[in-house]
Design a protein that fits this description.
single chain; 352 residues; mainly alpha; two-stranded antiparallel ribbon; 2% strand; globular
Length: 352
C-alpha cells in the first residue's frame, strides 16, 4: 500500500508511482525467470535446449536493481502501515497475508518444479501423483541429492521473498521506536536538505558497503538494509524532491557503472585483481538505479489507472504461481523442438 499525507491538505493520497513500480518489478521478475530457461552458464530447475550467451548481459542489467527496488518499496509500505495500525494487528495481518500463501506455495505450487528438475535429469520415472505421494516422505532416498531446504527437499524456492518480508517486517517493528526517533529523523532531514546530490547518493552506500564486506554471502542483510532505506525515505518531502530533481544524474551513474560491471562477462578481465571490486560496483549501480527509477516514476507515473487497480490485486497470485507455470511449460514444450523464438513466446503467453 503506497499512501502518503498530502503536504498541503494533510490528507492521505495514494502514491500511484510506487504501485506502478511494484507491478513493474514483479512483471520483470516473470520475464527474468523465463530468461533463466535460456541464459547460458546459469543454473535453473530446467534449462531449454536453446541457450543464449548475449542474454546474460540483459539478465545482469535487471539483476542490479529489481530486488533492491522491491525492498525499498516494501520498507515504505511498512512505514505507512505501522502509522495506521497497532503492533498486534500489524503482526496478525502480515502473518496471514504472507505465511498462508507461503504455506500453500510450499505444499502445492513448488513441488512440480522439483518433479520437472528430477525428471529432466533422469532421476525420476514416475507420474506426478506418485511423486507427490513420495514428496512428504522426508527420508526417502530418492531425494538424497536434494536435502537443502526448510525440510529435506521441501523448500520455499522462488517464494523466499514472502519468508524474508515476514521476517524483515517483525524486525522493523522492533526497530521502529529507534527509526522514528527524533535523532534518526533529524539525520534523514539533514541528508535530504543539507547534503545535496552527493550526500543522497554516497552516504547511504556506507552501510551497504559495511554490510557487504562483513557479510559477503548474505543477500538477506543487504536486502534488509534497502528495506530500512525505504522505511526512512517514507514520505520525507525533502528526500522525494531531491530524488526527483537528480533523477537524470542517478540514471547516468547507473548506466556508466553497468558498463563497467560488464567486465563480469569477460573471463579474461574477470580474472584480474581489480575485478574483485565488482561486488562494490554492483552496490553503487543498484543504489543509483533505485534512485533513478524512484525519481522518474514519481515524475511520470503518479497517475491512477483501472489497469493498475487490477494489477495491484493480481501481483501476489502472479508471483506465487508464475515460476511453476514457466518450468512446467518449458518441460512440456521442449520435446516439440519449436525453436528459439516460438518456444519462449509460447511460454510467455502460457504463463500470463
Amino acid at each position: 500500500m503506497s499512501v502518503f499525507p498530502d503536504i498541503q491538505t494533510n490528507q492521505l493520497v495514494r502514491r500511484h508511482d510506487l504501485d506502478w513500480l511494484r507491478v513493474l518489478v514483479f512483471g520483470v521478475l516473470i520475464f527474468y525467470h523465463i530468461g533463466m530457461l535460456y541464459v547460458a552458464n546459469w543454473d535453473f530447475h530446467y534449462k531449454s535446449q536453446y541457450r543464449s550467451q548475449p542474454l546474460e548481459a540483459l539478465m545482469l542489467l535487471v539483476n542490479q536493481w529489481r530486488m533492491p527496488l522491491l525492498w525499498v518499496i516494501s520498507g515504505i509500505s511498512i512505514r505507512f502501515v505501522l502509522q495506521k495500525v497497532s503492533a498486534f494487528k500489524f503482526v496478525t495481518v502480515r502473518s496471514l497475508r504472507l505465511l498462508l500463501p507461503l504455506l500453500f506455495g510450499i505444499l502445492v505450487v513448488v513441488p512440480p518444479q522439483l518433479y520437472v528438475e528430477m525428471t529432466g535429469k533422469g532421476e525420476l520415472s514416475v507420474s506426478y501423483w506418485q511423486f507427490y505421494q513420495l514428496f512428504f516422505d522426508l527420508d526417502n532416498p530418492i531425494f538424497a541429492k536434494y536435502q537443502d531446504g526448510i525440510l529435506p527437499h521441501i523448500d520455499v524456492n522462488h517464494l523466499w521473498y514472502l519468508r524474508e518480508l515476514w521476517t524483515f517486517s517483525l524486525i522493523t517493528l522492533c526497530l521502529s521506536p529507534l527509526l522514528n526517533s527524533r535523532l534518526v529523523q533529524a539525520g534523514v532531514d539533514w541528508i535530504a536538505n543539507k547534503t545535496g546530490v552527493l550526500g543522497l547518493y554516497l552516504l547511504p552506500l556506507i552501510p551497504l558497503i559495511i554490510v557487504s564486506i562483513a557479510l559477503p554471502d548474505d543477500k538477506s542483510a543487504t536486502g534488509f538494509t534497502f528495506l530500512l532505506y525505504g522505511y526512512l525515505i517514507g514520505w520525507n518531502i525533502g528526500l522525494w524532491e531531491n530524488i526527483k530533481k537528480y533523477r537524470q544524474v542517478f540514471l547516468l551513474i547507473a548506466i556508466i557503472l553497468f558498463a563497467y560491471f560488464n567486465v563480469w562477462l569477460n573471463p579474461v578481465l574477470k580474472a584480474m585483481w581489480w575485478a574483485e571490486l565488482l561486488g562494490l560496483v554492483a552496490l553503487f549501480n543498484a543504489w543509483s538505479g533505485v534512485l533513478a527509477l524512484l525519481g522518474f516514476a514519481a515524475v511520470y507515473l503518479n497517475k491512477p489507472s483501472a489497469k493498475l487497480s487490477y494489477l495491484n490485486d493480481a501481483v501476489l497470485p502472479y508471483y506465487i504461481l508464475h515460476q511453476t507455470f514457466i518450468v512446467v511449460l518449458a518441460f512440456l514444450l521442449s520435446p516439440m523442438q519449436l525453436g528459439p523464438v516460438f518456444e519462449p513466446l509460447l511460454i510467455i503467453v502460457g504463463t500470463f
